TrEMBL record:
Domain of life (superkingdom): Bacteria
Protein name: Regulation of enolase 1
SUPFAM superfamilies linked to this entry: Concanavalin A-like lectins/glucanases (SSF49899)
Pfam families, alphabetized: DUF1349
Coiled coil: none
Gene3D superfamilies the UniProt entry points to: 2.60.120.200
């Protein structure tokens, strides 16, 4: 089912955003991020996240558009139980290029990056969560969905999911989110990329 962005609940609402029937556009505040401890030694929980409640299993998809040019510029989808258990996946700019990035956090954060395709100014992210397993996929066209990550995630009766954007090194990244949907968990084979 398609989601009305005006019905979400902000965690760290950005100073500048607007939503209508076609999508959500936001501009990041200064030095925003989600991270817990690993390598850097700090915890940050001040990134922008527009949360929508879900049940114990679901598939969510969103289209993300932006110009990611500064170190750690990022945008995508977040699944969250609380400040110590969450996942964010989408684009992140690092080492001079945009990558597809996933951070899985269960007490402490981990980080993985991949580049199944390089054109990351307009792409889609899909997250499926069921039975304590999270499947994360990305797509350029909404038809072909390579796997980014398969990870355990704590089973719960409800989660929050929605768009997220952060700029740890600056402010002023404008991101457009559209085509956001949440539905029953996709049950296709892991290697079915449709």
């Amino acid at each position: 089912m398609s989601i009305d962005f005006n019905k979400g609940k902000w965690l760290n609402e950005p100073a500048s955003w607007r939503a209508d029937e076609t999508g959500l556009t936001l501009t990041t505040d200064e030095k925003t991020d989600f991270w817990r401890e690993t390598h850097y030694g700090f915890t940050r929980d001040n990134g922008h996240f527009l949360a929508f409640p879900t049940g114990d299993s679901f598939t969510a998809e969103i289209r993300v558009q932006g110009e990611f040019r500064t170190l750690y510029d990022q945008a995508g989808l977040m699944v969250r139980l609380d400040e110590k258990r969450w996942v964010k996946s989408g684009v992140e700019f690092t080492d001079g290029e945009a990558f597809l990035s996933t951070v899985v956090t269960d007490g402490r954060s981990d980080w993985s990056v991949a580049q199944p395709f390089k054109e990351l100014e307009d792409f889609r992210i899909r997250i499926t969560l069921a039975g304590g397993a999270m499947r994360i996929q990305a797509s350029r066209d909404g038809s072909f969905w390579p796997l980014l990550r398969l990870a355990p995630f704590p089973a719960a009766t409800r989660y929050e999911i929605g768009p997220t954007a952060c700029t740890p090194e600056r402010s002023g990244l404008t991101v457009r989110f559209s085509e956001f949907s949440i539905g029953p968990a996709v049950t296709t084979d892991l290697h079915d990329l449709s």
